Structure formats: structure tokens, C-alpha cells
Amino acid sequence: MKKTFTILTIVLFSCASIFAQGSSESAKADETITLEFMQWWEPEMAPGVMEAICSEYEAANPGIKIKRISKPYSEVQSQVTIGAASGTLSDVLGCDPTWIYNLVKQDAVQPLDEFMSADNYDESQLASISVLNGKKYLINVENFIYPLFYNTDMFEEAGISEVPKTHSEFISAAEKLTDTSKNQYGWDISLSLQNPTGIQNDIMSLVWASDGSGVPEPNNEDVAKVFNLVKTMNDKGLLVPGFMTAQEQDKVEHFVNNRCAMMVDSLAHINMIRERNADLNFDIALPPVADDYSGPHILDMAAWGITISKSSEHPQEAWDFVKYIMSPEINARIADSVNAFPGNINGDPNWVKEDALNQKAFALYKDNGVRNEFQGAPEANNLMRLMSEQLQAMLNGKQTVSQALENTSDAWAKVYAK
Amino acid sequence: MNSIKSKRIGSRALVYILLLLGVVFAGFPILWLISISIRANGEVFSSPPSFLPKVVTFAAYFKIFQSPEKIRFFINSYVIAIIVTLVTLFISMLTAYGFSRYDFKGKKIINMVIIGTQTVPPIALMIPYFGLMVVFKLYDTYGALVLTYLALTLPYGILMMTGFFNTIPKSLDEAVLIDGGSRLLTLFRVIVPISLPGIVSTGLYTFLLSWNEFLFALTLTKSNEMATVPIGIQLLMGQHSYEWNEMMAMSFLGSLPIMVLFLFFQKYFLAGMAAGSVKD
Amino acid sequence: MLKKKSILKNKKQILDPYWFILPAMLLLSILMLIPIIQVFRYSLMDNVITNKTPTFVGLSNYIDIIKDEVFKSAVGHTLYFTIFSVIFHLILGMTFALLLNSKYLSSGFRAVLRVIFIFPWLFTPAIIAIVWRLILDPLGIMNYILQQAGIINGIVEWLSNEKTVLQTLTFINIWNGYPFYMVSLLAGLQSVPKQQYEAALIDGANSTKQFRYITIPHLKPIILSLSILDFIWTMQVFPLVWMTTGGGPGHSTEVMATYTYKLTFLQFEFSKASASAMIILLISMIISIFYVRSQKSR
Description:
By secondary structure, chain A is of the alpha/beta class.
């Protein structure tokens, strides 16, 4: 039996050596301070930019090491959920403003107020800060607007000279643009349930465009108009088929491959569209508004936010790094690499001067309001998913527009009641 | 005579036709995968869809080979899969030896429990596993994945190996025992060499499971240095765009060694499966 | 002399078998029993993790879930998905195994074919989901081929039409899972004693009869245990469903695993998710009793 013991010991040792693997990593942290920085930005940015930004910071601040954890958006999202539940969040966290409510509720992130007042930080230079329960939790690093992208060649071919401005014009343009024999459709939306941001960017963006509101109460005229618009488009077969399970990425591929003539999409996609299909002629415009609306246009805005985790052992150093990311120069550099508008209003991005399309994008941003009612809402992703489910049931003919709105409203009320 | 002959030709033709259909069924999606891996991303959604890309490019493969970070995914996957396979085999063999060579109190109940653990849905384990791995300081290490996969593979491994050991006559190892050899000696000198097919088949199953596992790899690791191939593929799905060709290339490269392994080991694998599953 | 020695040994070594099974028992109890107990405990509390001081609420999480219409439909979808997957896994696995075992094939050709036929097993669920989503894209290759062949008119929205999506998803899972059966049955076929077939041939039995009276009875234990294991595994399938449809459109492909996942990651209802997981466990347990029975009957 001695031998059995020996074998057992070997097994235990091999297990222990695996354990040791984990602890040796943390042992290294004693000499220098390592800040973990998790975000989905690096994969979106031009290669090397984020790395350079971080290593410049390390060079200027000896003793600090930035450990970048760069993952795709959806994965950062699940990591954030897990991290918040298990107290393993990275020190500095790239965070969509639509996630912040639950992080605050789970007590996983730190308020920034004390750091700001200790530093006499000039808040007026920041475009947007998320405030919950009277405290500042998240700073918008970059803002993205969602204009209407349209394929100019298709417009020409269909004999449309004016970009549709109202829902009715939008429908009639989509009718002219749809040619099923060529697998060409007027409008594309993405209602996938895995990542239900299509609700925010394809549906609610049109509600907000006419200065409407849908959060927290979706059962109103403004939302009904957009639901009706989608229903008409769907009934007439003007939407790219498969939209109920399509994701945002699919939408862009459809646009690139001439499958759809119009989509509401992030400016960040301009580079990718050009890269995928250099011959594509397209332009951007304001998304359509309700027929009877005449006020100012409002654009859907998404943002990359930054926040500090409660479990961070070096909150002061983390805050210093946040300040660096928010400094005008760095902020503009990030913006340049992804066609964003810097969260520091003193940031002066170069991309907006590059060509006519980019200048137009900048003009749209400057001249119109922006809105995103999901930022700071509870379980924002869940709200979007609940609405998407009702919208899909409506498009499948299972319920009317008013039923879909009523059911969404009921489902949302339960989330808000928690 | 003639009718028998034509009947035979008929049945031969039938076998070939069915095989051809089967090859298309099994192979088409994989061919499509390879076809995407060698085209530009802009061509993935081209209409009408074309089976062969207009321009064949191996850029996706080069991108993977040129990136140390991506090579690391393969190394991680191999390290984890190999450790899990070896440990599973070792522990399964010990346990199977105990089950097949002894009668002891509680044997039936323990056997039931082991089978019962097969029924635990992985999704049920997800939440407690974060906690467990954080407490053990294993979160975001190989250890987290190795231990988790062991929990998934051990029950099946034990069941399979017990089946195999039962097929080996006890007289064989008793001869060694009487000569004064220890129990462990008999296990490794006598039983292991005979049951090589079983070991290979259990090993392949274990390897494939840990190679392809997704849910725990996603939740129990954080940094890219710890990512396995399935997570590496996930990493190519950005907020705004998918690197279609690279995802496909990575997946194909990941499966290639397993194909070769299977081609090489299939003789053992098939023999192993049969013995393990028929006799108990 | 010999007898005496072995009795002595037996007395001294009464603990021996426990040493052998100890490592496995240790690992499995740490990795399986403790987490399950923990999940069970969670499932009896009001929301754990998000709530710092959870209180005991008894079975109310279970009652909430069982009452939930979405959960009920998820159980229905899971059963549909699982039952059809298992049946077709078996049919396809058996057919391909028989074909690959056919005497018309040379051994080299056979070896290559075997590798081709296990392709679907070699790829990770994430990539399987993506490849099939591309193939089944409404404007993708599958519809194009079917249109060219004149089989369909217009466009079939395989994965985004409520009427076809569950069937399509089940089809993908069938494609993904048959190789495990095929390989096991292929192995089983190798072990059917050749004499039995020869004897049957002399008795004038045709191949259908041989299959029915020799092959099937011989493979019965494998078929039984494969089906039950597969049933349990398929009930728990998550990544494939999640990455293909996310449970949609609507709730039309919601299965128990995606339901549980959404409770965890979208709704942060960790206690309800635990209760839902316990229900899956319970159902699997009931089925595993059949498995144990089938094991015993051998």
C-alpha cells in the first residue's frame, strides 16, 4: 500500500503545482503595481494603438504596469457579470453605460466623487458622466452616433434623389429599393436575442429621432409609431430576411454586400465598411422621423464608459490611469482610431477633418441632440431582450402593436419593481 | 446466377450512393468552413453565394501563425487537454481497478453516485464554480479548467475503464500477485498493456471534450493568456465585425491534429469502444 | 498453503479497494457534491449574490419557475429537441456504421471515410453554430442550392422563422451528435462473432433477417446505454442553441439551459437560476435511473 500512497502523493503534488501556477502570478505583483484594465476597445481599434497608449503610460509612471485584458464586447459583458458576482472585476473597467446600473446595485464599482474632488478635477471638460444615487460612477470615454447609412448607387438606380425624412417616405423609398430577384432589400434591422442591442440601435433610435421617449414606459404613441413602421416594412417584405436572429455584425455584412440599401448604424463601422468593400458608394444622413414631427432631430448615441472596480487594491492608481485615458490628447487618439467623438470635449480628433463623409458625421453630431435612454437603466440588456421578444411575436402575427407595447410595458414594470 | 450477381451489383451501388450522400451530409459544412477560411471577409456574404472564393487567400492562416497570442490559444488548449486526459486516465484506471478487482462495502452505492454525476447539467455548476475557483485562487488559471474538466470526464472514464478491466481475466493478474508483486505493479505491468485500446478510446473522448469545451472556458478564465481555442474563436467576434475567415481558419487548424490523431489511432479506438461498451 | 496466504492478505487489505477509489472520490465530491449542495442552498434563498443578506424563502423560487409559461414551453422544446435528436442520432449512427462496415470497402478507403464521418464531432459548438448560421442564412448557400435545384421557391428563413427554427436547430444537433453513436456502434459491430452470420447464411437468412436477429440483439446494450447517456447530455445542451438562435425568435427555441443562462446573465436572478438548474438535475436524475437499470440488466 505504500506505493499507492506514493502515487497519491504524486497526484496531489501535480494538483498542487497547478495551484501554484495561480499564486505565482500574484506574487509578481509585489514589486510593481499591476492595474488590470479590461475592455472591448482594443479589438475595435486599429492594431497597436491601445498597446502604445498603455506602454507610454507605463514609461511615464515607473512602478505601474497596465495589464490589458482585451476581449470582444459580448465577452466583456459576461465577464463583468461574473466579476461583479465573485469580486474579481479588473481594477479599471471598460463599461457600457447600459451596464452600470447593475454594477452599482451589486456594489461592484466605486463612486468617483472623492477622487475628483481631491484632485479638483475639472468636470466641465467631460461630455457625459453617469450619476446613480447621487454619485458619479462612470465617465463616457468615447461617444458614437448612429446615423442612417444608405447605399447611394442603389438610390440612384431606384431613382430616389432625396433621402427619406419621414416614416412614410422611408417606407416608399424602401419599396422602390427592394428587388427580391436581386436579393436586395430596403431596410435592415437586427433583433437577435443573444445581444439584443438592435432594440436600442434599430428600434428605439427611431423613437428618439422624433424626440420620443420609451424608457421606462414604452407603451406610448412615439413607440407605437415606430412599431407600426417596422410592422409595415415587414408585412411588405422590405426587410432583409433573417433579421429576427441577425446580429449587429450581420447587418453590416448585408450592407457591404448590397443586400440592404439602408440601415441605422454606428459611425464606428465606416472603416470596416470601406475595408470590406472598397467599391461601395454610401453616405450618411439623419434617421427618419414621425410624419407629423417637425422639431429638432435627435441621434441615438452609444458610448464606451470607464469605471473603477470596488475590489481594486489600488484605487488611487486606477483613478490616475482613468485621468490619463480622459486627457484630451489620449482621448482624441482613441477617437481617431474608431471614428468616435471624444468624451473629453477638449479632445480634438483628426478623423473628422479627413474627408467629406467624416466632416458630415461631425456636423450631424454637432448640430443635433443625442439620446440613449438605456444608459443607467436597470438590466438594460434584459429590457431590450424583453422588448425584442414582444416585437418578434408581433411581427409573427401573434399580437397587435398595442398588445406588444402593453406586454413590453408589463414585463419592464417587473424589472423596475425589483 | 445472373440475378444474384446483379443483386450484388445493386447492393454495392446502393452502399456507394448512401455513402456518397453521407459524405456530403457530414462533409459539406466542413468544406464550407474551409472555403470561408480561404476567402476575404468581404466575400463571405457575396450574392449569389459561390462555393469557391473569387480570390483564394491564405491571409487568415498567416495572421494566426504570425500572432504569438493566437499560437498561445493552441498551446493552452493542448496543455489543458493533455493534462486532463492523463489525469483522467490515471485516476480512472485506479478507480476501475478497485471496482473490477474487489468487492467491498458501498460499491454499488458509489457506482450509482458516479453514474449520477453524469446527470449534473454543466450550467448548474457554473455559479458555484466561480465561487470555488475564486476561493482556491484558481480563477483564471489552467487549474480551474483542468479541475472542471476532470469533473466532467472522470465519471465517463471510470465507467469505460471498469468495463474494460472486467473483460480481462482475473487469473492474469493473480499470477503476478502470487509471485509477490504489488497490486499497483499488476495494474501497470499486466492490466494496462492489455487494455491499451480502452485507454486510447477513453483518452480520445476526454481529449475531445476538453478541447471543445466552451462554457467553463468562457466563465472561469479572464485573461487572453489563459484562453483556449474555442475562446480564441470567440475573441474574433468583435462588437462591430466578425473576422470570419480567421475564425474558420483557427477552428480548422485546431481540429486538424485531432483528425490526424483519429486516422492514426482509429484501430485502437474502435477496438476499445467495443470492449468497453459491450461487456460490463 | 496458497489459500491461507490469500485469506491473510484479504484481512490485512480490507481497506485496499478504498485506496484505489479514493482519488476519484475526493475529486468528485469536491467538484460535484459540494457545488450541487451549494446550488441547492442558493435555490432556497431569495436572490443570492446581488442581495448581501439573503433570506430563506423555501420553495418559492421553484414555484415561480414552474408557473412561468416560458419555462413550460422551454421544457416542451427541450423534450422535442432531445427526443428527435436521440432518435435520429441512433438512426444515422447505425446507418453510417453499417455502411462503413460494408464488405465493399477497401481498408484504406474505409479509414478515410471514417475520418470524414466523424468531422461533425471534431468542431467546437461555437464554430458549428457560426458555420450553420452562414449556410442557412436566408440569402446563403443552402437556399441558393435548393432554389437552383428547383426544390424551393423564394426564401426559407430556416433559423428566423418560428415555424422552422426548432426543427432546423434539432437538425444541426443531429448532424453534430451522430458520430459518437456511429463510432460506438461501429466498434460494437466489430465484435459480433462472425460465426453467427455464417451460420445464418447457411440457414438461408437474408441480410434484413441477419440484421434483425443477430446484429440488433448484439448491439442492444450499447444502443440502450448510448441513448440514455445521449438523452441526458442533449437535455443539457447549451452553447449550440445559445450561439445559433439565443432561444429565439421569440421563445421558440428556448430550452431549459438557455432559460437558466438568461436568468443568470441577463436578469441576475442567481437564486432562480439555481432553482431552474436543480429542476434540470432532477429530470436528468429520473432518466439516469433508467440508465442504471439498463446497466444492471446486462
